[in-house]
Amino acid sequence: MIELLENNIYRGYRVKLIVAVERDNMIKTRNQIIVPKVYDTLEEAQAHVEMDLKYRLSDSLYFRSQKLGYALVRYSREASLNTYISYRIVPLMLEKNQFSAGLYIKPIDTQKI
To answer: What is the pTM of this model?
Structure first.
């Protein structure tokens, strides 16, 4: 379902994972990964996040994180190199002038809203 928003056409949602590596109690690297699937509704994107959380908690070495802003943590053997994961749901929109040329999807700049 495509819904018009001002000069742009609304498209859907994507899930973004933020993976951060902590060394000696400081975040050293931080990468963002966008899940390629586009979800039509916010509920579908939230269901994907819940499914991924359940999978990582049950079938991998991740635990619930106590660090603010992160959902999961995987501790290293030495506890000096830990990996944190957080999830964000990103709204997407399709620009009206590019709609006829093809499906170019870009994230919404939330600072302008």
So the answer is: 0.72
